[in-house]
From TrEMBL:
Database matches in InterPro entries: AhpD, AhpD-like, AhpD_core, CMD-like
Oligomer status and interactors: Homotrimer.
Residues in Carboxymuconolactone decarboxylase-like domain copies: 101-166
Record protein name field: Alkyl hydroperoxide reductase AhpD
Record's function text: Antioxidant protein with alkyl hydroperoxidase activity. Required for the reduction of the AhpC active site cysteine residues and for the regeneration of the AhpC enzyme activity.
Catalytic site positions: 130 (proton donor), 133 (cysteine sulfenic acid (-soh) intermediate)
Top EC group: oxidoreductase
Gene behind this protein: ahpD
UniProt record similarity statement: Belongs to the AhpD family.
TM helices/strands, residue ranges: none
Higher taxonomy: Bacteria, Bacillati, Actinomycetota, Actinomycetes, Mycobacteriales
Disulfide bonds: 130-133
PANTHER family linked to this entry: ALKYL HYDROPEROXIDE REDUCTASE AHPD
Amino acid sequence: MSIDNLRNALPEYAKDQKLNLGSLTRSTELNEQQLWGTLVASAAATRNATVISEITDEAKEHLSEEAIDAAFGAATVMAMNNVAYRAKGWLGDDYANVKFGLRMNIISKPGVEKADFELWSLAVSTINGCEHCAVAHANTVREEGLTKEQVWESIKVAGVVQAVAQTITIEDVR
């Protein structure tokens, strides 16, 4: 069990994250695809090879190959969009109407339910610190019928996965 590998790799100073990761993977707030897709997309957003590998290995027991690809797709398209939309915000009104000009077809055809892909995009956007994208994806998932609690659950997953990745990175260089 790969989540257990991650939990067992966490030192005492990250005990909270060890417990958080355990409880979030047993959460019933999200359905199985929403939860495990959020875990995979968040892992990809951390850029930590160990976290990506361990979470994806276990996710294969819970997700189809298409869903795993969609979660990776959410992470990669948000890597691009989060940079671009944050920059547009920093640059001000002069750039508000400049054509985006980059392909992002996966958003309209992700291979999974729209709400799930948007939820994963929300989680990644919070890791990447893009307020514009986080707000947009939160609004979309709410319009698709998800609750505030489900939105928050995905953000909790993103935060814990990011904290686990940071801990693994710290321990790798100690």
